[in-house]
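In response to reviewer comment 3 from the previous cycle, which asked for concrete evidence that the modeling workflow produces usable outputs, we include below a single protein chain processed end to end. The sequence was submitted unchanged, and the resulting structure tokens are shown without manual editing.
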Amino acid sequence: MNGRSADGRIGFEVDGTTLSVRDTIEGEQLRFRVDREPDLSRALPELFALPVDRAVSFEAESMSVTKYSSVNVRDGDGEFIARPGEAAEFPRGDYCIEVNGVTKVYIRVTDVEIAVSEVRSSEPIEFAFDRPRTVTVGGRSFHTRPEATITVPDDPAALAEAVSVLGSSIREFSPERSWPTLRGYPPRIERGDALDIPSPLVAPATGIEVTVRPTYADVYRLSTLSYYLGARVRTGDVPAIRLDNGYVERLPIEGRPLESRVEELLRTWFFLDTLARIEGYTPSNPYEYEEVGPDLPFYPPNLADLSMSERLMEYLEVDPETVAPYAPVWPTEATLRPTPAAAELLPHLARVLAPIRVRGASDPVRQDAPAGLAISGGIDADVDPDPAPETEPIPAGTSVLTPTAYENRLRREIADRGDVTIAFLCDGEDRARKLRAVVTDPAVPDGIGSWTVYADPNREVVADRLSDPELDLVFCELPIRNGAVEAVDGSVEITDGNDGSGPQAPVVSVFEGNSEISAAVDAVDRGSLSGAAFERRLEPHRIRTFVGLLTAGCPIVIAAQLTFDSTDPKVRFVGDPGSVAAIDRRLPTQFCSFYPTAPDSFQVRFRSFLSTEVLLGTDHQVVVEFLDSTPFLSGTERNIGKADTSEILYLHGQKGPVLRLFGDIVLQNDELTAEDIEASARRALAADDPPESNPESGVESRWHD
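The workflow returned the following structure tokens.
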């Protein structure tokens, strides 16, 4: 992509000896103190081995920064050297200091000795040079929201042109783009009278073309793959992928085979990119390479510097079945109707790399049929993997997709684990009493900051709680009749939230006792990021588990699937399946399953779940002495070693989402004893078909991106 687009993402401002690096997309700025007033001159982003959006140069002898999350020292080629903790000195050489804060900044200095001060909480970290040197500072936006909006008329050919520039958010098209921070958020698509692609947006120059037939169905099916490839999308008679070396990969014409092949290519090429990057910006020796590498016809890092076409030619030699068992599961799998309204969903689905299927008709019999549905690929639950958006009611386990839910996320902050505020609206004092008891027994789940239980609330209280944007979660078990919540003194009417005054609903809204999703849809229309509707009333201890998982950072659909087995109540959702009510240190939801080999000996199987906040391409490392610490891709499952009873108790005592032990969820604040573990293990070993046990570990984890 050209420099003009990147120029607008980062700005530099000087105020005395303070240099501010401003992330214009995020609306944030990172401030540096310089030993003198910087005299800025424009610099080439190409000076950096890692991608930056804009750069400036000036003379300095020292710089410092206070509000940062991490600092890495790299050499002039971008190779990682160290993450300073104690005070450190680096010998003469070329360096690039990476500073992560509210935005990402690189400080490049050549032919210099550097002294880095000790890292202390709330204290600035200083970089001192052996003499005044020319310093080049580059900034890169975190780009967690769209940079611009494309207007598209109701014409598939025009939409194909719009899809061609979705990849404008991707910083580079080496295998490094498999890291989500290098992909950015694609530009929005909105419907209008004529095609309008804002001038900062351009189709990436990858040399890849994707041919689609001029139908909504084909454009939708190929949109996510086209985004990831940075491909220019053109209309034609036969679907195909064309490389700039002349090779053409023809694709099936029929819809379902086409979807299957596109998903297969996306999975294979994305996964192989994660192997080809292992000697790149974040060097690693991942578990997946150890398992798959010997079966590949090439050494993946050797492909890192090839052109896109050259690399894809090598990838096409790999049998997709070789990759499939080790690739992350899709956190979101979408099914859209071939209607113009579904076009607005494409950028949001591309961001989470969701494969897209197409079902139904453009003009359905039901006028209220959703433009799209989605399922979570995280758990093998009893959910139809091929839901039809025109089904009435919508299939259980599916999520209604709406652009409003994604836009709400762009406007709202999500609470950190431990700060979640909750309101429970209970139908009767007996239910309220039982819920209060179970939430506090033995302790309130650690993700909850504050909570209130209302018994038989009146209309005023119900309306206030359901429309309170300060709440992170509302759980309502009151009856719903004709789409309206029934309070003790009558139906509740809530003013429409689409008045420009901001959100008028909690972050997540959950209802129970009704198969209708109208209340959840209404909540999203008023500002919720997601909603859920359970068909029947839940047992109080199940409510505690579900809420405990949500407040620990678990995606809403995964939280429901982990809480309820296939015999429990059916549930329907609104919003992306990966939506969350809390963020846990930007880590994926983590699970350790324990399989007993003896009453006090267990095989440990680790699993993680991605979300709209932790995207495909991140990797994970379990840092515990008695378990395998080999990095691996988030969103996968693997054996990581063995543990005894005391080690399970150690894991339970660490900070982490949850434990699930022999079918029972054990939240962090729940009681767990050696006697409990060994008694459960004996029962499992005595059973003909020992139940799976999935303790969600509080494993110390590191998140790489």
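The chain has four domains: 3-140, 149-360, 402-583, 589-704. We consider this sufficient to address the reviewer's concern, and the full set will be provided in the supplementary archive.
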